[in-house]
Amino acid sequence: MQFKHLTLLALASYVAAQDNSTTQDLNATLSSQSNLSNLTSFLSLSPGLIQALSSAGNITILAPSNDAFAELQGTPELQALSNDSSLLSALLQYHVLNGTIRAADITNTSAFVPTLLTNGSYSNVTGGQVVEAVLIGNETVFYSGLLQNATVTQADVNFTNGVIHVIDSVLTVPLSVLDTANAANLTALRGALNATDSIGVANDTPDVTIFAPTNEAFQSIGSALANLSTDDLASILAYHVVEGTVGYSSTLENGTSLQTAGGGNLTITIDANGTVFVNAAEVITPNVLVANGVVHIIDNVLNPNATEAATPSATEGAPAYTGASSVTDVPFTSGQPTPTTSVNPTSEGAGPASTEQAAGSSSSTGAAAPMKTGAVGAAALFGAGAAMFVGY
Ligand SMILES: *[C@@H]1O[C@H](CO)[C@@H](O)[C@H](O)[C@H]1NC(C)=O
Ligand SMILES: *[C@@H]1O[C@H](CO)[C@@H](O)[C@H](O)[C@H]1NC(C)=O
Ligand SMILES: *[C@@H]1O[C@H](CO)[C@@H](O)[C@H](O)[C@H]1NC(C)=O
Ligand SMILES: *[C@@H]1O[C@H](CO)[C@@H](O)[C@H](O)[C@H]1NC(C)=O
Ligand SMILES: *[C@@H]1O[C@H](CO)[C@@H](O)[C@H](O)[C@H]1NC(C)=O
Ligand SMILES: *[C@@H]1O[C@H](CO)[C@@H](O)[C@H](O)[C@H]1NC(C)=O
Ligand SMILES: *[C@@H]1O[C@H](CO)[C@@H](O)[C@H](O)[C@H]1NC(C)=O
Ligand SMILES: *[C@@H]1O[C@H](CO)[C@@H](O)[C@H](O)[C@H]1NC(C)=O
Ligand SMILES: *[C@@H]1O[C@H](CO)[C@@H](O)[C@H](O)[C@H]1NC(C)=O
Ligand SMILES: *[C@@H]1O[C@H](CO)[C@@H](O)[C@H](O)[C@H]1NC(C)=O
Ligand SMILES: *[C@@H]1O[C@H](CO)[C@@H](O)[C@H](O)[C@H]1NC(C)=O
Ligand SMILES: *[C@@H]1O[C@H](CO)[C@@H](O)[C@H](O)[C@H]1NC(C)=O
């Protein structure tokens, strides 16, 4: 396996011994921060968790400010938090990073940091669901489910077991593959998964990396998809899924070969500009965290029978179905519910180059644009565990 967790190791090794002569315990530190009183009251509803945090070593708490909680005022999800202690614990656990990570440890290359969220009802990522941490300009930003962002407003508040960063939004626990496809308008993929009876597999297989073609990608080769047998469609979909490896931009290196669920291999190519390709398709929105791994949105449907890697001179993805032509209607969407969200991850601002990075750096693709809209933000806020409240 060619993956390397360079950035993560760098962070983990940074864990420094705490000088506790001047630091207070978690309770005292939280109480002394008046802008964290909402978080403090939610934590007090989870006495087991606060006890665990007080005795844990080397943690980083991403602490939503009262202003962050105020944005949720009046939503059903906020109500749900008060009524469902399991959901509350999961959400709070997702706000605790495993390790002491100071603001200075976070660079303009995205790192994917494990949290204490390991409960299988909310996450199927071995070692804990992650958040993406990245420095953009002079702002320290964390991306959670649906690429929703939270920015650090007060960094490096020390306490005995680690450090607290105050953030301006409540994080979103990553959603299932299906709910993420709904929110990201990946309706053709969703329909294709349904047509092959693969939704359960996509949602429940732990530790997956999924390359998700856009609706336009399916549409542009519609003629080739029209008469496929279910088995053929299933093989094509299986060629988009890697099981047992969650490959974030920080670990997908130039030349990496990934074995897919269908058996065939995919090749990652990174060009001189840092643009990432999987075979000849371009990754246009990387690192969409999902409950059981990560989704990278790509601009072409991959073909298990046409496995060429991108050429170094490629400037955009190339279709892998020669001779196929586009169709009027997006394939596999007939009879499907229309997405209620007006989110298009391919819109302006998305894309691998949207974070500032050193010229010539090819190891990072950075964070893409958030998918949040008012509607999806509220409905999806607490991710997988909240699905029952929002009617998916
Ligand atoms: C922190 O405090 C504990 C108990 O008060 C003490 O045993 C430990 O040596 C201290 N650690 C440091 C690094 O000062
Ligand atoms: C912190 O507060 C919680 C409950 O609010 C309590 O269970 C815990 O013992 C306290 N920890 C310390 C170190 O005071
Ligand atoms: C946050 O605290 C303020 C002031 O105590 C309170 O009015 C508000 O209801 C709290 N919000 C939540 C979400 O608990
Ligand atoms: C915290 O990290 C330090 C340094 O890596 C390590 O020595 C210590 O055992 C860790 N503490 C806990 C509770 O894991
Ligand atoms: C934190 O990470 C360490 C080392 O990877 C692991 O042993 C430990 O179980 C993790 N803690 C939690 C609460 O996940
Ligand atoms: C994790 O996988 C199990 C089955 O292996 C499934 O029951 C559970 O719903 C999954 N959790 C999430 C959050 O999708
Ligand atoms: C961050 O940068 C902006 C301009 O790019 C500047 O106005 C602001 O003061 C900076 N903030 C900090 C904390 O340095
Ligand atoms: C955070 O999300 C908001 C909208 O949800 C967006 O306007 C803003 O550009 C995002 N910031 C970053 C750093 O991604
Ligand atoms: C927090 O702890 C770090 C590491 O021990 C130290 O460098 C820093 O000065 C401390 N910050 C404050 C405000 O005490
Ligand atoms: C990636 O690998 C290809 C093929 O070996 C090479 O042409 C290209 O320059 C490499 N890209 C980077 C950024 O090193
Ligand atoms: C899913 O597929 C079944 C047939 O396998 C079909 O009856 C159903 O309408 C499809 N659902 C959606 C949302 O496309
Ligand atoms: C979803 O994608 C389709 C096909 O590309 C597009 O026509 C539609 O406007 C998109 N819907 C939303 C809500 O963005």
List descriptors.
binds 2-acetamido-2-deoxy-beta-D-glucopyranose; seven-stranded mixed sheet; 20% strand; 2 domains; FAS1 domain; disordered C terminus; alpha+beta; 27% helix; 392 residues
CATH secondary-structure class of the largest domain: Mainly Beta
Strand order of the largest sheet: 2-1-7-6-5-4-3
Mean pLDDT: 82
C-alpha-based Rg, rounded:
21 Å
Which CATH architecture of the largest domain?
Answer: Roll
Class derived from helix and strand content? alpha+beta
Percent in strands: 15-25%
List the helices and strands in order: HHHHEHHHEEEEEEHHHEHHHEEEEEEHH
- Cα(first) to Cα(last) distance is 37 Å
What share of the residues lie within helices? 25-40%
Based on Cα principal axes, name the global outline: elongated
The CATH homologous superfamily of the largest domain is called FAS1 domain
* β-strand number: 14
- The CATH topology label of the largest domain is FAS1 domain
Number of helices: 15
Report the sheet with the most strands, covering strand number, pairing sense and barrel closure: 7 strands, mixed
Uncertain ranges = 1-18, 342-392
Heteromolecules bound = 2-acetamido-2-deoxy-beta-D-glucopyranose
Q: How many domains comprise the coordinates?
A: 2
Describe this structure in words.
This protein has 392 residues and is α+β, with helices and mostly antiparallel strands. It has 2 domains: 8-174 and 375-385, FAS1 domain, CATH 2.30.180.10; 177-359, FAS1 domain (Roll). The chain has 15 helices and 14 strands. Strands 2-1-7-6-5-4-3 form a 7-stranded mixed sheet. Strands 9-8-14-13-12-11-10 form a 7-stranded mixed sheet. Strand 12 and strand 13 (281-290) form a beta hairpin. The radius of gyration is 21 Å and the shape is elongated. The model is unreliable at 1-18 and 342-392 (pLDDT under 50). Bound molecules: 2-acetamido-2-deoxy-beta-D-glucopyranose (NAG) (12 copies). One 2-acetamido-2-deoxy-beta-D-glucopyranose binds next to loops.
